[in-house]
C-alpha cells in the first residue's frame, strides 16, 4: 500500500499561542488530519481548537530539564518511527519551531524533500528570532511573526533534524539524531520563535510555573530571556549562511559532527551569527 505524503508531530505544555501557530503552519503543509499533538501532562488543557487533529495526553515526564529532554526525545522518536509505516515523511519539531522553504529555491514540499536522499533525514538551517531593541511594538498575535520581527541569529543550536523518511531517533532536545552526522539543508530554514516577543516570553515563563519550576528550567528560561532587546550588529544574510554551512557540520578537527557546532568566526556570539531576515521570508510564519 502506498504511503501518505507527510505528517507533522509535536509535543506541548502550557503553549496555547505557539500551538495555534504550529497547527496553522503545518496544517497548511500536510493537512490538519495529518497533525499529531502530544500534550505533556493532564494538569492543563490548551485553549486551542484541536478538532480533526490526533491528540494524545502523556503523563510521567520528568520535571528536570535534561531528564525531560531525554524522555520527550525517546517518546516522540518512538511515535515518529511508528508513523513512518503510514507516511513517507514525518516532520517532528517543537511547538515554537516552524520550518519553511526558501522562496528563491522555487521548490514545493515534495520536491524539497528530495534533499533527504537515501540517508532519510536533513537538518534545517536554524534562525533564532529575537525581538530587537528597535522593535518596540508588541507583537500583533493574529498576524504573521516574520515581518513584524526581522532580527535573529543563524544558530547552530537551532539547526535541527526536523524530518525523517527512514528509521531515526532524536536525542536530547531534538538537536541531533543518534549515530547520524549533520547534513545541513540548502533550502529548509527553521525559525525558532520563543524570543520573538518579550510579552510572550514572560507569559510562557509564568505559564510553566515561573520561579517555582525545577531550578534547571528556571535557569535555562531566564537566561534565554536575557537575549531580548538584541543589539548585536548583523552580518549580511548570505555571509552568515556561508559561515554556517562551513562551520556547523564539522568538529574542530574537521571531522563530521554529530550535532551542529558553533561558528568560529570572531563576529559570532554565544547565540549564533546575528542577521536581519530577508524580506522574502516575511509572512511565511
Question: Could you write a compact summary of the structure shown?
Answer:
With 285 residues, this protein is of the alpha/beta class. Helices cover 25% and strands 24% of the residues.
Characterization of the model:
About 25% of the residues lie in helices and about 25% in strands. It contains six helices and twelve strands. It has helices at about 15-30, 65-85, 110, 200-205, 215-225, 235-245, and strands at about 5-10, 35-40, 55-60, 85-90, 95-100, 120-130, 150-155, 160-165, 170, 175, 185-195, 275. Strand 9 (about 170) and strand 10 (about 175) form a beta hairpin. Helix 4 packs antiparallel against helix 5 (about 215-225). The strands form two sheets. Strands 1, 2, 3, 4, 5, 6, 7, 8, 11 and 12 form a ten-stranded mixed β-sheet that branches. A two-stranded antiparallel ribbon has the order 9-10. It has about 280 residues and is of the alpha/beta class. It has one domain. The longest helix is centred in the first third of the chain and has 19 residues, at about 65-85.
Amino acid at each position: 500500500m502506498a504511503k501518505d505524503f507527510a505528517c507533522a508531530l509535536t509535543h506541548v505544555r502550557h503553549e496555547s499561542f505557539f500551538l495555534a501557530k504550529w497547527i496553522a503552519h503545518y496544517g497548511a503543509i500536510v493537512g490538519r488530519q495529518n497533525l499529531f499533538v502530544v500534550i505533556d501532562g493532564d494538569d492543563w488543557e490548551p485553549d486551542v481548537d484541536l478538532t480533526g487533529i490526533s491528540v494524545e495526553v502523556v503523563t510521567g515526564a520528568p520535571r528536570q530539564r535534561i531528564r525531560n529532554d531525554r524522555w520527550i526525545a525517546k517518546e516522540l522518536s518512538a511515535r515518529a518511527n511508528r508513523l513512518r509505516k503510514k507516511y513517507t515523511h514525518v516532520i517532528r519539531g517543537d511547538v515554537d519551531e516552524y520550518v519553511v522553504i526558501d522562496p528563491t529555491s522555487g521548490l514545493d514540499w515534495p520536491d524539497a524533500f528530495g534533499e533527504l536522499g537515501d540517508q532519510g533525514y536533513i537538518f534545517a538551517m536554524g534562525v533564532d528570532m529575537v525581538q530587537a531593541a528597535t522593535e518596540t511594538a508588541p507583537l500583533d498575535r493574529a498576524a504573521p511573526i516574520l515581518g513584524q520581527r526581522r532580527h535573529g541569529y543563524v544558530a547552530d543550536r537551532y539547526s535541527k533534524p526536523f524530518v525523517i523518511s527512514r528509521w531515526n531517533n532524536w536525542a536530547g532536545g531534538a538537536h541531533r539524531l543518534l549515530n547520524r552526522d549533520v547534513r545541513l539543508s540548502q533550502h529548509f530554514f527553521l525559525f525558532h520563535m520563543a524570543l520573538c516577543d518579550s510579552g510572550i516570553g514572560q507569559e510562557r515563563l509564568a505559564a510553566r510555573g515561573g520561579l517555582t519550576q525545577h531550578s534547571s528550567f528556571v535557569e535555562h528560561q531566564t537566561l534565554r530571556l536575557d537575549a531580548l532587546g538584541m543589539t548585536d550588529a548583523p552580518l549580511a544574510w548570505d555571509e552568515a549562511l556561508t559561515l554556517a554551512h562551513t562551520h556547523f557540520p564539522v568538529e574542530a578537527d574537521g571531522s563530521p559532527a554529530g550535532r551542529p557546532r558553533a561558528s568560529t568566526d570572531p563576529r559570532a556570539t554565544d547565540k549564533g551569527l546575528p542577521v536581519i531576515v530577508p524580506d522574502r521570508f516575511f509572512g511565511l510564519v
